[in-house]
Design brief:
By secondary structure, the protein is of the alpha/beta class. It has nine helices and seven strands. It has helices at about 20-30, 40-55, 70-80, 95-100, 110-130, 155-175, 200-210, 220-230, 250-255, and strands at about 10, 35-40, 60, 85-90, 135-145, 180-190, 245. Strand 1, helix 1 (about 20-30) and strand 2 form a beta-alpha-beta unit.
């Protein structure tokens, strides 16, 4: 019997096999969980569907997190298929590339709203849509980054969005605790993902993280997946409102 045998949940945010969300999905499936996946559009479906099918996904559905009707449809489908679910993985973030390249003071109003909507508000709306099907004792995990609490060059508006995301985790955890629902975030170190490709000088950030981290190496997709598995499982039954760092110790050594 695996750690997640008999547990079912939905993963939002897989873009390809390099995605942090895919690392989480693999760990959950290896531990026995039944999974559902979403994809943004037809182009993304071509990448996501083969991955989802490789782990025997029960549901593979379209979902733009800016469209609450689509999110409701995803959770309605989960209710029809499973009745209740045990976890949700929110691994969704986006900012306009030009807003990551320009000085932060030049961030556009539209760009600010977009980054906050997709990267932070979507956790709130997703949680609201999930509540009718979440079991008592269920868990929600989202993905954040050190740029939420420190100024990271070229991270710009995404850092502000992640700060809002982390605050949302705490408020949701406080609200949902009485219902037995836990909400946590995993703060991963720099990892080569599709989203990271939009950040200027990302290779330099990888070098600095590797050099300064106490472990003297970068963390892997699998390691982030394992920490997420812990937070999503009953092993973390007493943990909520936490920002869980998985960065080789870089958070404590970044200075």
């Amino acid at each position: 019997m695996g750690l997640m045998t008999g547990k079912r949940g939905i993963i939002f945010g897989v873009a390809n096999d390099k995605s942090i969300a895919w690392g989480v999905a693999q760990q959950l499936r290896a531990a026995g969980a039944e999974l559902a996946f979403t994809y943004l559009n037809a182009a993304m479906e071509k990448r996501v569907r083969p991955l989802a099918e490789s782990v025997d996904a029960r549901l593979i559905l379209p979902c733009d997190v800016q469209n609450e009707d689509e999110m409701v449809a995803v959770f309605d489908a989960a209710k029809e298929t499973w009745g209740e679910i045990d976890f949700v993985v929110h691994a969704v973030a986006f900012a306009n590339r030009e807003d990551l390249k320009k000085p932060f003071s030049q961030t556009s109003c539209d760009g600010f709203r977009l980054a906050l909507d997709v990267s932070a508000y979507s956790l709130i709306s997703m949680t609201r849509c999930a509540l009718p099907v979440l079991k008592k004792g269920s868990s929600i995990v989202t993905m954040t980054y050190l740029g939420a609490v420190r100024s990271v060059p070229a991270y710009n508006v995404m850092g502000v969005a992640k700060a809002a995301l982390e605050a949302s985790v705490r408020y949701l955890a406080a609200e949902l605790g009485e219902q037995g629902i836990r909400v946590n975030a995993v703060s991963a170190g720099p990892i080569k993902t599709l989203a990271a490709s939009g950040i200027a000088n990302f290779k330099e950030k990888l070098r600095v993280a590797e050099e300064r981290a106490p472990l003297k190496r970068l963390v892997s997709q699998d390691e982030v997946g394992k920490s997420s598995l812990y937070l999503l499982s009953d092993l973390a039954s007493g943990v909520t409102g936490e920002i869980h760092y998985v960065d080789g110790g870089f958070n404590t050594a970044a200075g």
